[in-house]
Structure formats: structure tokens, C-alpha cells
Design brief:
This protein is an alpha/beta fold. Helix content is 53%, strand content 8%. The radius of gyration is 21 Å and the shape is globular.
């Protein structure tokens, strides 16, 4: 695609990155076949190709409009189009750039600004989010059904291993997961402990930065990234840990982007590259460990989050691990499509999100599984809000069954 970016962005890091991405696009339209919003809305402007054209026009100097902003807002950033694209267009990076530029040109209505501020500041502070979640759960009986489904129920962490091992890894210190489902981190620690690996959460680490990045606060996201690198670096530099392990694919995909996001930062670029090299999803890490098989087969439907299959490019590894541990995996049609969670999308784009969830749950429950498993807290909470079938992280399933 031919480009002629405006002078005000042409020589900036964002402009150079956007120009490189835009030039790869041959506007073939293959991406439309796997775009969830295009499948629902049928509008070219709500598909990747149309959004790429809109971003290109803005970066070339055409003024952004409220309509431009709405079309970009409807994008889930699921990156399914990246998996489909034969030219390797990094659409996720481009839409982040486009949204940030549009945000400087188009002021949102005050209600949108207030909600996005609350999400950006509230979800990224575990103490604040945790307090609010406890309060909401304590009065869940009085909440509207949609909100009651979103806050969920408490799943206790259970015992946390205290044994010391020679092999050590860092676990990400997620922002919402410890409050929403402390059982996930505890299960991860127990499974790693059973494999002879000690898990550590670095003091001072926190939110990976994804929420701020996708809500157009790129400066705040980079501050979160630098804080995490500073917290992890003593463990990395001293060789105390062999990996940084993520049990939330959304966070893992963000950490894998650290080198790209800090590529222009002379103080952090090399460190960010090293962090990316060390980061693994827990499924990747456990592939090299010995984990006992579960005692009884169980019918399981697995939902691979978009951040796992399209962001991290991990496909089939969790499924193979589950089969080796006694799961009877049922077939799930359209497994490549998003469930509609997409971070804060389920709050900001409720209608589209719920329609995508209904489609996904229809596919997941077609073969009547006993349990639905996934790999990201957002997908798990979102799906559970629409079904009575238990929805769990696959590491919880593994932990529970191996302890029986």
C-alpha cells in the first residue's frame, strides 16, 4: 500500500512504525473472513481492511471524526486478522497508533471519558479493584443480572506452597486476577511446586500495562512496563530465575510486546529484549516438566483466548497437554473467533460483546462438555457470566484433578 504520511507524524517512532505496517498491506481482504465484528455488522469500515484505510487517511492528514473513532472502538484487537494475513501486517500495533492519534483529535463525550478513566485507574490498582469487587459481591443479590454475572463468585486460593526449590521462576503480578480468581495463581504455584519449581512474585511489580495501552494511555503503559522491568531485573540479572511465567495470556501477550514498546528507550530497550526472551506462557513452561496424569477422563471444551492463539501464537500446546493428562477434548467450531471479552471491551461495547459471547457459548456447549477451560481471566469471567457450565482456567483443572 502506498503511503504519504503527514509531516507531523512522519518522522516520529509511531509514524515510522505505522508506515512500515501500512506498506505491507495489499488490501486483499482475507482478513474480513476472520474478523468477528465484520461478521456481525457486515460493514467494511468495521473490518480490518476498512479500519486500516481509516487510520491511513488520518495519518496522511485527513481530520479524524467521531465516526472514525467509533469504528476503531468496535475493534476487539483480537488479532485474528494477523493470523489470516498472508503479508504479515501487524494490525494490532497499527490500531494502537491509530486510536491514540484519533483520541488527540476527537474529544469523547464526558460519560465515555469518565468510564474509561475509571477503568484505566481502577482496574490497574489491585487494592482498589479488590475492595470494590468485595463490596459488589457482598451485595450481589441487589445487583442487576448483567452486573451480578460480571462480578462472579469468590473461588478461594487454597494452600500456597512454601517449599524451596533450586529451579525458580517469576510469576506475573496481575492486576485483576488475584482479586477475581485467586485460585488461578495458587493453582499455578501448586502445579509448579509439584514439578519441582518454585514460583516468586517480585515485590514492586504490578499490572502489565495492557489496560492503559488499549485505552490510549501509552505513556502510562510504558511507565507500568518500566516499573515491572525494574522489579524483575535483580532476579534476571543475578540468574535466580530461569523464566518469567504468565498464567494470563492477555498479560503474557503484552509482556511479549515490551521490546517493541520500549524500542526507542535507550535505558530500557536491551532489558526489555531480555524480558521478552525469558517470558513464557505456563503451558510452554510445563511442556518441559513432568506433571502427573489426572485419574479420570472428563469431557472438556477448551476456548483458546485470542491473546493465546493470535497474540502469543501458541496453538495446540494446551490441548495436547490436557489430552496427555486425561482430558477428553470435544470439538469446538470456530475456535479461532473471539468470545467478546477482549479486556475492557465487554464493558465499553456491551452489545457486540454479548452477541459474540452467545455465539461462542453455543459452539463450546454443542457437545455437552462437563467443564469449559480457558487460559485468560477475562475470557473466563466473561464466559461464566453467560452459562451454568463451570468455566475454569485449565491450570485450575489440572491442579484440582492431580490433587484428588
Amino acid at each position: 500500500m502506498e503511503t504519504k504520511l503527514a509531516d507531523w507524524i512522519q518522522e516520529t517512532p509511531a509514524g515510522r512504525a505505522a508506515d512500515e505496517i501500512l506498506r505491507k498491506c495489499v488490501h486483499c481482504g482475507f482478513c474480513l473472513a476472520t474478523c468477528p465484528t465484520y461478521q456481525i455488522l457486515g460493514d467494511e469500515l468495521d473490518g480490518p481492511r476498512g479500519r486500516i484505510y481509516q487510520i491511513k487517511q488520518v495519518l496522511e492528514g485527513s481530520p479524524a471524526t467521531r465516526e472514525t473513532q467509533l469504528h476503531l472502538d468496535r475493534c476487539l484487537t483480537c488479532r485474528s486478522c494477523e493470523t489470516t494475513c498472508p503479508s504479515g501486517v501487524q494490525y494490532g500495533h497499527l490500531v494502537d497508533i491509530g486510536r491514540a492519534v484519533v483520541a488527540t483529535q476527537v474529544e469523547r463525550p464526558w460519560r465515555e471519558r469518565a468510564l474509561r478513566w475509571l477503568l484505566r485507574e481502577g482496574l490497574t490498582r489491585p487494592w482498589l479493584f479488590g475492595t470494590g469487587l468485595k463490596l459488589a459481591r457482598s451485595v450481589s443479590w441487589a445487583l442487576p443480572a448483567a452486573l451480578r454475572a460480571k462480578v462472579g463468585v469468590n473461588r478461594p486460593a487454597g494452600p500456597v506452597p512454601s517449599q524451596t526449590h533450586a529451579r525458580k521462576v517469576l510469576l506475573l503480578n496481575n492486576c485483576v486476577q488475584p482479586s477475581m480468581a485467586p485460585s488461578i495463581d495458587a493453582a499455578t504455584a501448586r502445579v509448579l511446586d509439584a514439578a519441582g519449581v518454585q514460583s516468586i512474585i517480585a515485590p514492586g511489580s504490578g499490572c502489565c500495562g495492557a489496560i492503559r495501552q488499549h485505552l490510549d494511555d501509552h505513556g502510562g503503559a510504558r511507565n507500568s512496563i518500566r516499573r515491572n522491568i525494574d522489579a524483575w531485573w535483580p532476579f534476571v540479572e543475578s540468574g535466580q530465575v530461569e523464566a518469567i511465567v504468565s498464567n494470563a495470556s492477555g498479560c503474557g501477550a503484552m509482556v511479549k510486546d515490551y521490546a517493541h514498546l520500549l524500542r526507542e528507550d535507550p535505558a530500557y530497550a536491551a532489558k526489555a529484549n531480555r524480558i521478552v526472551e525469558l517470558t513464557q506462557d505456563v503451558a510452554e513452561f510445563l511442556a518441559g516438566c513432568t506433571v502427573p496424569a489426572a485419574p479420570r477422563a472428563q469431557r472438556v471444551a477448551f476456548h483458546p483466548p485470542c491473546t493465546l492463539q493470535h497474540g502469543l501464537k501458541i496453538r495446540g500446546q494446551v490441548e495436547a497437554l490436557l489430552r496427555s493428562l486425561g482430558a477428553e477434548l470435544v470439538p469446538v467450531r470456530d475456535a479461532h473467533l473471539c468470545c467478546g471479552s477482549a479486556g475492557t471491551y465487554s464493558i465499553l461495547q456491551t452489545g457486540l460483546s454479548q452477541e459474540l459471547r452467545e455465539r461462542k457459548l453455543d459452539a463450546l456447549q454443542e457437545e455437552a462438555p462437563e467443564v469449559i477451560l480457558s487460559a485468560n481471566i477475562g475470557c473466563i469471567a466473561h464466559l461464566q457470566g453467560g452459562t451454568e457450565t463451570p468455566v475454569r482456567h485449565w491450570i485450575e483443572w489440572l491442579d484440582e484433578r492431580c490433587r484428588k
